[in-house]
Amino acid sequence: MAKKLMKGSEAIGEAAIQAGCRYFFGYPITPQNEIPEYMSRRLPQEGGCFLQAESEVAAINMVYGAAGSGARVMTSSSSPGISLKQEGISYIACAEIPCVIVNMMRVGPGLGGIQPAQGDYFQATKGGGHGDYHLVVLAPSTVQEAANMVMEGFDIADTYRIPVMVLGDGMIGQIMEPVEFVPPKKREVPPKTWAATGWSDKSRPRAILNSLYIEPEEMKVVMDRLLERYELIKKNETRVEEFMTEDAEYIIAAYGTTARIAKSAITKARAQGIKVGLIRPITVWPFPYEAYSKAADRVKGFLDIELSTGQMVEDVRLAVAGKKPVEFYGKLGGFVPSADEILEQIKKMAEVK
Amino acid sequence: MKGLKRFIFILGNFGSGKTEISIKLALDGAEKGRTVLVDMDIINPYFKSSSKEELLTGKGVRVIKPDYANTTMDVPTLPAEIYSPFDDKPDRAVFDIGGDPVGSSVLGLLRDRIREVRDECDFLMVVNPFRPMQDTPDKIISLMEEIEAKAGIRFDGFISNGNIARETTIDDIYASESIARELSEEKNIPVYFTAIEESLAKEYNGENKIFPVHINMRPEWLDNYNI
User: Fold this and answer.
1) What is the pLDDT of residue A57?
2) Alpha-carbon gap: A349 to the closest alpha carbon of chain B (Å)
3) pLDDT value at A109 more than 90
4) Which of A197, A215, A258, B80 could lock A254 by a disulfide, CB 3.0 to 4.6 Å apart?
5) In Å, how far is A74's CA from the nearest CA of chain B?
6) Which of A52, A119, A99 shows the shortest CA–CA distance to A331?
């Protein structure tokens, strides 16, 4: 029984454990409670620590501290809870501490509701907290991919000393699919010489983890280093999936669950003779601009589909740079479009009656 | 299913398949008589049996559901209507209970009413050994005992529901049955039947009664992406 039937949220929990995560700090919120639920059951079996914090703010600061000691640490939440964590995320980014943060997006703004959405794209990819920083943001579209991303996310975090976010819509957390846990391709992960693990032997400089820089010269050194690292990540880690794009006249831009439904719609459209394909960002930061800009030279138009009022579409338009029309279809309120609904939009774009 | 009692309580591990089985039991019941489905799952935010209310009521099943089911509210409360099947005694009442000990605790609400009709009740534990932490009889028994303690009931039997969604093979069905058989011997209660996705049912060559299930809860795009 190598494969298990798991909910996305459970698979994320198990993947973290398989990747060596032994510390989880969180605060419950629907629709991702199965992550802390799973961790609370499994971590004690592995000699780890699950701790339900008194708030999201406390939880993210526990992540800051525990990850600062070099451990693999994860937290998870859903949209309003992720907003509460933003100050801590900015601090962690500045202190260059690797960790994994999961956001199972629910519909909003405000407290919103518990149904799936993709309204936190701006927050995840353009900052979220204050200041100049980025997270690596991975956007799974299947339960298997969510598990893989969590496992590899820890490696990416450790490689670049950066917080990694796994950005799923609520649906990814709730659907059940067969999943197996396969370690990611081995990376050269540098040793954590920066970690605060005690200073008893005095053989190295003190490990000071900080996000406060009084001297502007010192602040500039940190920011230059972050900038350089972000450029390296853009070069090395940008990932994208192209589906039936080779002969496509139209391209759908979508990520997560929406991309998956789009695939069903594309298959239906192809059966009706409409040449349409999908470009799906696997990393939404760094964003795969090149895939869209290259496609812009050969296709007639783009259709961006999101569970939002239109966020990723701005990046698609940046990439397409006015060369071709980019239309938008947003499904709001916590509803998920059906394949037929997307098919209708494809037909509208391709002007097929 | 022939032989099932009037009040059928479906419990088990979170995600073991309780909802699909409950829907099928209710639809079967409605073909023969007055049937009620009581959705008492207040821990699952998206995929509840009452989200198929239209299908169920269309086939004559009366649906009783959590107060805020199918809304964007997450308020886990149940209406007083959940007690009504004990008074108006339909031919079949299927209670779809939330998973794991945490989801099963709602049964405490019905404890006194259940006591009055205990002889007319079947408490069934749905078993899917492909779920995490459910791959051995020991682990399943330990969960089962936790559910019994939380829900305040004793199980009458098992439903073998081994599956890994679209990748299920007939051998997985048999592997699950063999674990269910061990459970049955250990706990001295029967395996009522083997639930099996309807398209796999014709391949079945085992000894259990089978219960073919039509999959209602999976979104149409979910198993269609691998193209």
Assistant:
1) 98
2) 21
3) yes
4) A258
5) 20
6) A119
What φ, ψ does residue A255 adopt, rounded to 5°?
Answer: -135, 165
Architecture of the domain made up of B7-213: 3-Layer(aba) Sandwich (3.40)
The domain segmentation of chain B, as residue ranges, is 7-213
Q: How far does the CA of residue A2 sit from the closest CA of chain B (Å)?
A: 9
Q: How far, in Å, CA of A214 to CA of B160, rounded?
A: 65
**A170: chain B residues, CB-CB within 8 Å:** 45-46
A 269-308 residues with CB < 8 A to B: none
Per-residue model confidence (pLDDT) at position A315: 98
Contact check, Cβ <8 Å, A41/B74: no
Can you tell me the distance from the alpha carbon of A262 to that of A348, in angstroms, rounded to the nearest whole number? 15
| CB spacing of A30 vs B219 below 8 angstroms | no
Q: Which residue has the higher pLDDT, B220 or A336?
A: A336
Q: What is the DSSP letter of B8?
A: E
Closest partner residue to A176 among B15, B45, B71, by Cβ?
A: B15
Residues A149-169 have pLDDT tens digits of 999 999 999 999 999 999 999
CA dihedral A296, A299, A305, A309 (to 10 degrees): 50
Percent of chain A's residues with pLDDT above 90: 96
The answer to whether A189 and A159 have CB atoms below 8 angstroms apart is yes
**Residue B227 reports pLDDT greater than 50:** no
Q: What is the DSSP annotation of B154-167?
A: ---EEEE----GGG
Per the CB < 8 A criterion, the answer to whether A244 and A266 are in contact is: yes
The vertex-A78 CA angle with A77 and A81, nearest 5°, equals 70
CA distance A271 to B137: 47
Are residues A174 and B46, on separate chains, in Cβ contact within 8 Å? yes
> Is any Cβ of chain B less than 8 angstroms from the Cβ of A26?
no
CB atoms inside a 10 Å sphere around CB B54? 9
pLDDT band for position A337 (cuts 50, 70, 90): very high
pLDDT in tens, B112-151: 999 999 999 999 999 999 999 899 999 999 999 999 999 9
Residue B208, helix vs strand vs coil: coil
- In this complex, the residue of B71, B73, B225 whose CB is nearest that of residue A260 is B225
Domains of chain A, first to last: 4-197+223-237 (3.40.50.970), 241-349 (3.40.50.920)
- What percent of chain B has pLDDT above 90? 82
> Which A residues 36-55 touch B at CB under 8 Å?
37-38, 41-42
